[in-house]
Design goal:
Helix content: 40-55%
Distance between the termini: 22 Å
Number of helices: 8
CATH topology: PF0523-like
Strand order of the largest sheet: 2-3-1-4
Largest sheet: 4 strands, antiparallel
Number of domains: 1
CATH class: Alpha Beta
């Protein structure tokens, strides 16, 4: 494994897909079952809990490092990445926070490893950062106290700090 998130996550690809309310689970099932995903790790999560490629890149990096170090909480790269992306300590809490549901209208599909996973015309590449608003950060679990410590730093730093803190929370 490389030394930086950029080096270890070069194969990461991610897209957003808009769907009708009540259709996200079916869309996820279609994505996961409809492709030949041999040796491919795919993560499908609520888009409102993902703050861009840098968020996913950090989560994937920490997940890969946990697997290499033997500190992983899950046997799957996708589930370990979900744990870090959620900034939660417990997988059950991470799943509740990040999983697509009946109210989900936009999902993020992330190809974490392997291939082939080819997007169709309804998939849009995920931006480097996206949706960084105070309201969304509060829904993600960032506290008002954390926001008050930010100063002039970008909002994304709070998300990335929470991703990195999962290592501490897991101990």
């Amino acid at each position: 494994m490389g030394t930086s998130p950029e080096n270890t996550t070069k194969r990461l690809r991610a897209w957003t897909i808009t769907t009708r309310r009540g259709m996200a689970k079916a869309l996820m099932d279609k994505i996961l079952a409809g492709k030949d995903l041999t040796n491919t790790q795919v993560l499908v999560v609520r888009a409102d809990m993902i703050f861009g490629m840098d968020h996913l890149r950090s989560a994937l990096y920490h997940a890969e490092r946990a697997i290499v170090d033997g500190t992983n909480s899950s046997e799957s790269l996708a589930m370990e990445t979900l744990l870090y992306a959620s900034a939660e300590r417990q997988l059950s809490t991470a799943i509740k926070k990040m999983a697509v549901g009946d109210q989900t209208e936009e999902v993020v599909v992330a190809q974490l490893a392997g291939g082939p996973l080819e997007p169709d015309e309804t998939w849009h590449e995920l931006d480097i950062t996206t949706g960084l608003t105070v309201d969304r950060l509060l829904r993600f679990g960032v506290t008002k106290t954390e926001l008050s410590t930010l100063g002039e730093r970008p909002l994304l730093e709070l998300v990335l700090e929470r991703v990195a803190a999962v290592d501490i929370l897991k101990k």
